[in-house]
User: Fold this.
Amino acid sequence: MYLPDFEYYAPVSLPEACGLLAQFGPRAKVIAGGTDVLPKMKQEILAPEVLVSLKNLSQLTDIYYEKGKGVVIGARATHNDLVNSPLLQEKYLSICEAAHHMANNQIRNRGTVGGNIVNAVPSADLPPILIALGAEVKLVGTGGERTVPLEEFFTGPGNTVIKQDEILTEIVVPDQSFTGSTYMKFGLRRSGALAVVGVATAVAMHGDSCQEVRIVLGAVAPVPMRAKKAEELLKGKAVTAELLEEAGVCAAGESKPISDIRGSAEYRKDMVRVFTKRALKKAVQEGHS
Amino acid sequence: MQAITDNNGVKRYLVTLNVNGDSYTKVIKANTTLADFLREELDLTGTKKGCELGDCGSCTVLLDDKPVDSCLVLAVEADGCNITTIEGLAQHEKLDKLQESFINNAAVQCGYCTPGMIMSAKALLTKNPHPTEQEVREAIAGNLCRCTGYVNIVKAVLAAAEDSKEGVKA
Assistant:
């Protein structure tokens, strides 16, 4: 299995990288970890004539806290960088856990958070939890930079609002009013499996009462989707086992899964019910501790 | 990165990789994977190619001490990095304790997954010298053994860890 020929550039600055993307247009593709673009090139799903590597943009791997802004995750941070980040472990264990259950160790050492987002695969594990936490992404292009809420970033399977000359440089997770968050993935194996269903929840609890909640479903719609009716159902109410079951049923009704090799649409809907309930319960309990 | 264009317009790139402690400078095309670089350019055929899509882990090598699938790394991307392959584990003809342990525990059947398995296990034991069985299973989750000899492989890794524990005591 061989890679076709292509030209390779490893720019040392962002403006240079964006300039190359603008110059080559749709013939160019960005490579970060390569765990997605290279298999696609080997399988002739993608055939870029030029690869622009982010390898020399080392500032894009930092994970740090900036007061007034939140936690900033460099787009080139690998999944294992997220897993092992003391800052994320302290502030957002749910992000570490989502990263930890992806693919396998070798892939987690190369694959990047930016790549996981930009590829816009409906079953991707990081977008649901990042959307639940209200994350925004910074896009830098030849004409300047802009910030987009991650929730508005995806437009369809494999499609996003990113422009040809733009590079996703960082993900910002703002300071939270949520007391607990979690991401639960249901795959057919414990390792190396795509999500059949992924559910991210974030809740702000005041005593037993749910003040604020976000539920984001992965792998059950063309893009990661908020289960807004289920959220409304929970808001301002005392959390009981019955209410969580109701929220699960509601989220299942909102989801729009397809049938594929990993599961039928009906099965996925029922798994949305189960995992929404479980993920809510876990996030609520976290708020109590 | 220095590139050379030949008469047919094909670009080649000058890369320097440190493999098993030795520095190699080569001129390669951009589509050379690290796995092919090791096997074709350096004749280090201990690194195996299986699925070539990052599922099977037979091509696992350490890149700056971290296990990666060398079939999914471009050699140009590994320019300037330190690579350890299965050939780099034995020191002066003395096998690494993991290699000894794989032999002693009959953890090798057809042998195709073995180099990758050992590289993943090596990375684990370097980071965590006394892992639990669960941690071993997680560390080799990206390495498929189609003979399904996992029980003895896990046993071998745990035994190698146990040996080093005794070594500390002695």
About this structure: The radius of gyration of chain A is 19 Å. The domain at 7-53 of chain A is CATH 3.30.43.10 (Uridine Diphospho-n-acetylenolpyruvylglucosamine Reductase; domain 2). Chain A has three domains: 7-53, 58-173, 180-288. The mean pLDDT of chain A is 96.
